[in-house]
Amino acid sequence: MFRARRIWVTAAAVLAVAGGSPGLAQAAPQPDARPSSTVGDQNDGLPPGWRIAGKGEARQLVWRSTAPVPMGDVRVEFYSGDRMLGVPQPDRDGRTFRLGLGRGAAATGLAGLHVRAAGRELDAAGRSETPGGRRSAAAAPPARLPANSVDPGKPGQYATTTGEYDLDPVKLPGFPQPVEMRAVVVAPKGATGHRPLALFLHGRHSTCYTRTNVTGDWPCPQGTKPIPSYRGYLRDQRLLASQGYVTVSISANGINAQDDAAEDGGAQARSSLVREHLARWAGWAADPGSAPAAVRNAPPADLSRVLLVGHSRGGEGVNRAAMDSLDPPPAAQDGYHGPVRWHIRGTVLIGPTIFGQNPVADVPSATILPGCDGDVSDLQGEVYVDGTRAVSRGAALHSAVYVVGADHNFFNTEWTPGQAQAPAEDDFYDDPDHRDPVCSPGTATRLSANQQHKAGSTYIAAAARLFVAGDDRVRPLLDGSGRRAPSADPARVLTHAVGANREGGFLPDGKVTVTGGRLCSAADPDDHVACLGSRVKGASPHFARWETDREVGRRAVALHWSAAGSAVRVRPDAPVSLGGAKDLALRVIVPPNSTGTRLDVSLTDTHGRRATLGRTTVDGLPGTERTASHWAREVRIPLSAASRAGLDLKHIKSLDLTPRSRSGQAWLMDAWGWRPGTPAVHEAPLARVDIGRTTVKEGDSGVRTYRVPVEVSGQGSGQVRVYVVDPVTGRATARLVTVHPGGHDIDVPVEVKGNTRYAYDVDHTVIVKAVRGAVIGSYRGGVTVQNDDPMPTITVAPVADRVVEGNPLKWKVSLSQAADVDLSPMFLVAPVTGGPELSTKDVDPAWLAGASGESPDPERPLSQIHYLYLGANVPKGKLSAQVSLPTVKDRVTEPAESVRFQLTNDNGDPLPGGPVLTGTVLDGS
Fold first, then answer.
1. Which of 210, 218, 239, 295 is the most exposed place for a label (fewest CB within 10 A)?
2. Phi and psi dihedrals of 748, rounded to 5?
3. 768 and 723 Cβ atoms separated by less than 8 Å
């Protein structure tokens, strides 16, 4: 979660600055919240489940689900229409989410509040819903691939030993509570010599539990136990240990409980924790007698051969640890400051987040994408593959491993029902009334927990064998060569890759001309520009949304045809060399559940000679509107036809794709010259960019200019794309910047005008992404301008506080001084001090439903309606506004009835001694 980039909301309507920059609510928990809304004079209510709480600097937009929303790895995000308002803070009840309210000028009206997580909608129950409730016809599981010559899922020759260590906790920057240094070690028995080390890091999950409940506390309160998420990979560890690896899985509950306040979602903290453990292992290797018993019982670890395995946010954490091991982060942001005495040979990332979209190009990786992931459901981890293209030398293999029918949690046994010590669940929510044809349990494509975990173990071992042991025989399991590991059966596992022995790429991201098709953008609000428009059912991992509503230079080639035979030509601005390649490898997306998309593939050289290489057929993955199944299949066509035709393969001018199916659509992600083998990886000298954040007071007068703190380190120059987010509109402007270590190439000035009128804090945010020759550490930062003026005093006066039923009660709410933002004082219903009280039957039922979600029946005093508020909207620059309560006329003879509302404090509770609205309604019969 992130530092606040605030929005501001009035009681009559939510006026939201455009999203793009997530916000962090600064609020105290309110565990017993329930759905409610707030209305103003025009009876414009918020949707059920939404309300506004607090006042002044601590005002919040609050949404409460009717069922718990499990603590997971993706962010819950508030939206107004298609515009992201920010990332709310969860309450301890697991149902309530709060977003701090802030300032916006030239804001727009509310188009519709809703909640998303990883691109999917959360319904009122806090679950993922099937759009329109429509069932999809799903394809059968993909055909079984031929078996690979080597199966890394088979246990090795060694018996294993298991032990744990628990060291003194460590303090990490920005985290109030120390973080545990606890781990489980599984190692081979009887192995000689120094053995490679595999370190596992779990993801973001609940931290503490009782027999029936889980929480996100840290340390765990009395009467609860820590959830042992770090023990969830024992099967994977035992397989690797049997093959000769020393393995350690580390605990990160202390980070999970505190990372909602971290601008990067905790990636830097997780990196620090990983490197703290690696530093201890390096020390124990040098001085074995100082090691804990669990380590002494293992063979000595070879720290020059380290594999990092991370699940979910743990995946982003080990990616950052690999980065930080090559290029250290700024000291103030880092929790580890010692020497790097290890070498990361590769990473395995399981259902990972990548909030920063900042993969490490020079460290090989295998990213496991669960086809039924209900947590990181957009499968944004694909960016660990796509985001490395053209950034560095391209020698490192980056593989995407798509596991059909796998969910997010079952790769960890401590997150799996029936296997976990704590309460656990299947993260892919199964609605009995709208069962998903691909992912609901019992379908032909959905894996059981044990089937899924077995497949995960096999492909972790495959990555270890390729990246660490250098056994090229397992490469076909990871690089899109279309082979399977029988140990993973019956799982259907598909792969594609970039890097390694791929060269001469046709890359839509670069300077390229397309005829017969169109260049489309991975992220753009315009359906005519976006690769997948808003009417497309389902999602694509390749087009997972980042923090901006549109991105520059992240593209694909879209093909759409209604008759066969019309070629789409892709022509880079400079000739492509395919010299030395055996095949042309293409990554092509076709719609889910489609079969038999046929394409002819042709090349033309700079001399005008053209050759058709052959025809390829591409089938879609099983998918529904709830899955991210628009995923590229890798297909290869031999270049032998081009050689026979005399093409100059070192100077290829264009690539043609000619559809041979009667109609259809496809997207070309890229095409490369490919040959077998895994080259040695030598890390390139890259520039590293880290964006910081500084906080300043606005002051009472004058104009001051501040600059966004940026640190460029590393070696060599590089290019990055800098996005500057407008704090008023939320729109981001992008520019390409060449950076140099120690330079000030990224210069973003922020002008701050002082005044003496109350307003909200304003965040000026900058985000950055690598393009070429660079790596990004802290990808997000800026300047936060703090309001330093007191909130105006609120007073009330009656306008019509004694009325005949059928007429509205009215009050005037006044400020002692005008403010620079709309203010919405909130008044909570309270019991009257004497006499009969106005009831639910005495007020407009539409108003009551909009304000509280409640029905007038059964009749009860208004003070028995929880979280029933009246709100006044005082526009910026104004001193007062009216608030009203609509009443209805009935035929019942009644005595005079009263009502009472009291001004609330920052938490939405009655403010002792605060202004009170009182009114009396007289019988009209």
1. 210
2. -120, 100
3. yes
For 651, list phi and psi in degrees, rounded to 5: -140, 75
| Cα(383)–Cα(669) distance, integer angstroms | 12
The confidence score (pLDDT) of residue 115 equals 79
Q: Label residues 24-47 b or e (16+ Cβ within 10 Å = b).
A: bbbbeebeebbbbbbbbbeebbbb
* Predicted confidence (pLDDT) per residue in 229-254, tens digit: 999 999 999 999 999 999 999 999 99
CA gap 495, 402 in Å, rounded: 6
pLDDT tens digits for range 22-45 = 332 222 223 333 333 333 333 345
Q: Which residues of 804-840 are buried (b: 16+ CB within 10 A; e: fewer)?
A: ebebbbbbebbbeebbbbbbbbbbbbbebeeeebbbb
CA distance 316 to 347: 10
Which residue matches tokens 């790596």? 775
Cα–chain center distance at 230? 22
Q: Is the pLDDT of residue 810 over 50?
A: yes
Over residues 329-362, the pLDDT tens digits come to: 999 999 999 999 999 999 999 999 999 999 999 9
Phi/psi at 335 (nearest 5 deg)? -100, 0
Going 120 to 123 to 128 to 134, the CA torsion angle's sign is: negative
Query: Of all helices (H) and strands (E), which one includes residue 379?
Result: none
Query: If DSSP codes are grouped into helix, strand and coil, which group holds residue 280?
Result: helix
What 848-851 contacts at long range (C-beta under 8 Å, 24+ apart), as own/partner pairs, is 850/37, 850/39, 850/43, 850/45, 850/46, 851/36, 851/37, 851/38, 851/39, 851/45
The full DSSP string for 649-682 is: TTSEEEEEEEE-SSSEEEEEEEEEEE-S------
pLDDT computed for residue 628 by the predictor: 97
Question: How many residues are recorded in the chain?
Answer: 925
Separation of CA 884 from chain center: 41
* 73 CB-near residues (< 8 Å, 6+ apart): 203, 204, 205, 312, 313, 351, 353, 375, 376, 408
Distance CA 539, CA 378 (A): 7
Judge whether 246 and 301 are in contact, CB under 8 Å: yes
What is the rounded radius of gyration, in angstroms, for the C-alpha atoms of the chain? Answer: 30
Supply 434's token pair. Answer: 């709208």
Other residues' Cβ atoms within 10 Å of the Cβ of residue 304:
12
Peptide bond into 490 cis (omega under 30): yes
Q: Alpha-carbon distance 394 to 293, whole Å?
A: 42
Task: State CA 638 to chain mean position distance.
Answer: 38
The pLDDT tens digits of the residues spanning 862-920 come to 999 988 999 999 999 999 999 999 999 988 889 999 999 999 987 788 999 999 999 99
CA angle 570, 574, 576 (to 5 degrees): 70
Cβ–Cβ < 8 Å for 805, 889: yes
Q: First and final CA of the chain: distance in angstroms?
A: 57
Record the pTM.
0.87
- More confident position, 13 or 614: 614
Q: What is the pLDDT of residue 139?
A: 57
Q: How far apart are CA 789 and CA 700, in angstroms?
A: 8
CA–CA gap between residue 152 and residue 703 (Å, rounded): 64
What value does the mean pLDDT of the chain take?
Answer: 89
More confident residue, 508 or 535: 508
E strand or H helix at 900: strand 897-903
Q: Return all residues near 682 (Cβ < 8 A) that are at least 6 apart.
A: 362, 393, 395
At how many degrees (to 10) do helices 313-326 and 267-286 cross? 60
Q: Give the whole-angstrom CA distance, residue 138 versus residue 595.
A: 12
Region 211-240: what's the mean pLDDT? 97
